[in-house]
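INTERNAL AUDIT FORM
Audit reference: QA-55
Scope: verify that the stored structure record matches its stored sequence.
Auditor: D.O.
Record contents follow.
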Amino acid sequence: MFTGIIESIGSIRSLTPKGGDVRVYVATGKLDLADVKLGDSIAVNGVCLTAVELPGDGFWADVSRETLDVTAFNELKAGSRVNLEKALTPTSRLGGHLVSGHVDGVGEVVARADNARAIAFRLRAPHALAKYIAHKGSITVDGTSLTVNAVDGAEFELTIVPHTLAETIMGDYRPGRRVNLEVDLLARYLERLLLGDKAAEPTQGAGISESFLAANGYLKS
């Protein structure tokens, strides 16, 4: 688990294809690796990776075919800047929100504009994720815990203050940039809980629908 508070900007040093997936070397910049052991988790742009080698100034990790298929990781190359966060501990400050490091989908930056000293971004999420994104709710973008300022269909707006721009890779974002999205854990579990016993039925794969809510008394006619 993570908090979505980025600890360092690192960079991709090497991407090596291995048997259909990829081994990656991440240079970790100012990230303190003194307490990191082999097998520990580190989030790279919001993707939870396992450290398999620790050469000193970074770590090696294996990126599975599944991760390459469902995240924007396959767009990274040697030299790409990445957000880094070590897994939280029982004594960590929860400055953001609970983040699993399991990416739900890939979004796209559609607009960027100055807003006083901040930057306003508009992003488009995959349609399947739109129902989980709420005004003033939390969302994780490339591993960064952020507050949603407005929602319009599958698009949502963020206002990023100068500190966040400096301490994450968001200053690099331009329209067309693809980003990893993880929705709030509570929203996902709430959807599953609302299904009740029907969650065990294979036909419920589509999840909560308006007709389901009406049939089960959650909507008034």
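Auditor finding: record pair retrieved intact. Residues 187-215 form one domain.
Action required: none
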